[in-house]
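Milestone 3.1: sequence recovery, worked example.
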């Protein structure tokens, strides 16, 4: 492949953006996709993208990549730690199966009045992986959406890729992950010094394609006609139309809201990349599956999700290599002071 020529910004590489949707344990699918890409190519994902945006479980993946973890290590987080986070460690025999069914029933009953799960297990597993890393330790630019329920506004964690962003780089990756993944009714809102009652970014940006494209076009000032965007979803399904919607259709309504948000985000990215209908540099991977087959907190089908992710990666590799795996990117130099100069 011919090496790209220097663009108007002086970069020898086209700007490349990776986005990853929310979806709980269904994040095993995009994690497996990225692990397969790294394994086949021999290149780290983080070394080939100028900006990584992720919401909820996608935010955890984005933070992991930016922290320097391999996609295989991130996938292992889902497979080994995911069942512990959602109290679903496997067991054999009738007794173990019965106990697991009882715990699921208790959790579902609990969800009627409060969060289905405590955040302590997720915090513990995140701390084991991220340690003391902060957003300022990121190897590339990241954008992690959350929602500020205390003030009724958007809250987006960002690396210091602009001089205005003088605070988030000090935030621990664990806190950012707990905030973006605080899905209402599943996990409690997250608070830390400087922010209170943050909720899952999926409230407004479950698919962060549009957020990432806007960041590139406005804050970073990139020529989006030269940009390339790879978007990974956590599966999708058909949501049949209903003529009348009542309270009994609340799950259908929530899914419809997510679908509408997804379409808007996708359309925003398409328009900003300059070719709304034919841009071959915008790639969306989000396999369609039967409605209700996978749940965001069900660890029993993660092996299927892993196989799906790896299979989709193998099929997409020719285009992935051509558009995204170009052997490097321009160095990311954050605006915050070096750690040894911090006051």
């Amino acid at each position: 492949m011919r090496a790209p020529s220097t663009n108007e910004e002086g970069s020898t590489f086209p700007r490349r953006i990776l986005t990853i949707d929310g979806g709980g344990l269904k994040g095993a699918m995009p994690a497996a996709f990225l692990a397969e890409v790294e394994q086949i190519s021999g290149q780290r994902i983080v070394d080939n993208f100028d900006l990584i945006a992720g919401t909820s479980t996608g935010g955890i993946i984005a933070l992991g990549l930016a922290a320097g973890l391999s996609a295989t290590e991130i996938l292992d987080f889902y497979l080994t730690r995911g069942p512990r986070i959602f109290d679903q460690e496997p067991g054999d025999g009738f007794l173990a199966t019965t106990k697991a069914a009882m715990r699921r029933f208790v959790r579902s009953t609990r969800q009627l009045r409060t969060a289905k799960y405590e955040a302590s297990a997720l915090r513990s597993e995140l701390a084991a992986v991220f340690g003391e890393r902060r957003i300022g330790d990121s190897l590339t630019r990241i954008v992690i959406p959350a929602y500020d329920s205390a003030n009724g506004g958007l809250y987006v964690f960002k690396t210091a890729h602009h001089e205005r962003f003088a605070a988030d780089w000090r935030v621990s990756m664990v806190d950012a992950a707990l905030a973006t993944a605080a899905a209402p009714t599943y996990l409690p809102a997250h608070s830390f010094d400087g922010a209170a009652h943050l909720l899952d970014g999926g409230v407004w940006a479950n698919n962060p394609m549009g957020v990432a494209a806007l960041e590139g076009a406005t804050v970073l000032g990139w020529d989006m006609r030269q940009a390339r965007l790879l978007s990974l979803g956590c599966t999708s399904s058909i949501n049949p139309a209903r003529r009348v919607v009542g309270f009994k259709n609340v799950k259908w309504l929530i899914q419809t809201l997510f679908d509408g948000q997804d379409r808007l985000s996708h359309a925003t990215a398409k328009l900003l990349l300059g070719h709304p209908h034919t841009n071959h540099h915008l790639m969306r991977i989000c396999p369609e599956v039967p409605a209700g087959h996978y749940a965001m907190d069900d660890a029993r089908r993660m092996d299927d999700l892993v196989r799906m992710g790896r299979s989709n990666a193998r099929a997409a590799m020719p285009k992935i290599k051509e558009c995204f795996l170009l052997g490097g990117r321009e160095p990311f130099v954050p605006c915050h002071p070096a750690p040894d100069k911090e006051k």
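The chain has a mean pLDDT of 89. The CA atoms of residues 148 and 195 lie 8 Å apart.
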